[in-house]
Amino acid sequence: MMEPFHLIIGGKLVAGASTMPVINPATETSIVDCPRADEAQVNAAVAAAKAAFAGWAATPIADRRAALMKVADEMEARIDELARLLTSEQGKPLDKAMEEIGGSAFILRALASLHLVDKVVQDDENGRFVEQRYPLGVVAAIAPWNFPISLLAVKATPALLAGNTLVCKPAPTTPLASLRIGEIFNKYVPAGVFNMVTDANDLGGVLTAHPDVAKVSFTGSTATGRKVMASASSLLKRITLELGGNDAAIVLDDVEPKSAAKSLFEGAMVNSGQVCLAIKRAYVHESQYDAICDELEVLADLAVVDDGAKQGAQYGPLQNKAQYDKVREMIADAATVGKVHGGAALDRPGYFIRPTIVRDVPDDARIVREEQFGPVLPVLRYSDVADAIARANDTDQGLGGTVWATDKARALDVAGQLETGMVWINSHMNINPFIAMGGAKQSGMGQELGQAGLEEFTQRRLVFVPA
Ligand code: NAD
To answer: Quick check: is 242 catalytic?
Structure first.
């Protein structure tokens, strides 16, 4: 029997105003009835965070850091239980869920080790300018369903280290592991410092519009990001937006096709393609096009797609029915304009879609223009690399990108022309918690991770001290 789940408000574990089922995407059955908050509970969570703010902000940063380190320790000690829970609601294979929980504990420790110290920015015969950082107040942290725990760690750790208090809201389809980890946070910080509410996709706007929320740290789709920005505008709230991507991979003509295909496949299909930074379009030189597409199709046929709880599963289901329907629709649309390989649903319950390769597809196809967020890779042909770069940049989004080449100098030249927040050469998703990242164009605003990510949860105060 699973221990019951609760909202976390003012240090207490409380029942929701109602309940909602959480569906296992590999079986389409309900895992458990999860608490669901109402507007009054969101308001109570914000009030509790507001009341706890002065005390937490005055707590020495070393004590705040020590509390966060204890959260990381307990997450690691309970990794089996937490990973199983994450697999059951998110769908990812158990080894990947273990990586997410263990990786989140690692991120937590890394981010909690950062410092906020006064900096002298100028010192001359007139006096000195000192830069100080102080916390903002109540932070709302809103996460999507693809990496619920990593994203919770990335937001909650710097927010709390800097002295803010929190109201977190996980995605409606993946609240369970977040609520358990929320209980761990709540255990090590004073009452009201860490609050968590869950919803059925109906309370995000209430939280972001709340007058006592000073900052919103949001990860999700670009469409919802726009709503967050609009609701923050009346009070000029601070916002950090990590939004959708349509990342291009540019494959130069000097690659070894088999190994390039393997890298592209892994970069596109990771987490069943449900990754903001997944490779979502590949531009391959015409001299390599057929060889790489053929190899991608072989890899798609070999992939083991199964319930993430089963040993040997490499790819789990799509996380929810809406996403499954959307990706199926995009594959059907791609089949009308290009050649689709794979893409079958499995003949069993669960939101499974086999890895899919789409070749000979035009640039204006939906699968190329829109973020698929699923296990489908469109492969586009080019003859001139300047043309490939222009096509890669021809999008409103600008999260990441990759360049694949034997000649690294050529790759660097291409990387330097991509309009994105990050580019990896001959590698993918090389993320370091000490290095800040953020999207360009409509992929976001602001930075997460690293010192810059921490400082986003603070107000800069410049003090002039005369000589
Ligand atoms: P989504 O925007 O639908 O939902 C994200 C969160 O916002 C959920 O918790 C949801 O309940 C909440 N929400 C819904 N309406 C809201 C409102 N009006 N105000 C405030 N919050 C509201 O996104 P999703 O479908 O859950 O996630 C997939 C998207 O997230 C993809 O576009 C993906 O690229 C993006 N993503 C981006 C990053 C990044 O770092 N850039 C990381 C992971 C995912």
So the answer is: yes
